[in-house]
Fold this sequence. Notes:
About 40% of the residues lie in helices and about 0% in strands. It has about 120 residues and is mainly α.
Amino acid sequence: MSWQDPRWGRLRDNQNGTFPFNQQSTAFAADYLASQLRGCYEGWEWWLRNTGTRDYRAGDLWGCVGAWYSGDWHSATADGYVSRVRRELARRTWLDAGWAAQLPGCDAVEGCPRGAHRRGP
């Protein structure tokens, strides 16, 4: 979630966002995610002001989680992702014995992770 769309062109002194560092280093990816969530939570992500169905405001952690996923503030895509995350948190699926062997499915926004299989047609 941390790259510049190639259609936007290269920004001066920019390596097209954080790719490939965020793919090659879990520590970097976690650190970058935390910095983005903190900035959003503090109200520093000014570009979110006109991107969603509700007004961007500081202090909305779940809004920030959705914005990290979709790039929009409380859009249908962002809020759908938040719902899925909250559902998995409530289920505590990571405690299931077979959880480590489960592969994620494909997603309209993220595509298919390496090793995942497309579900459905």
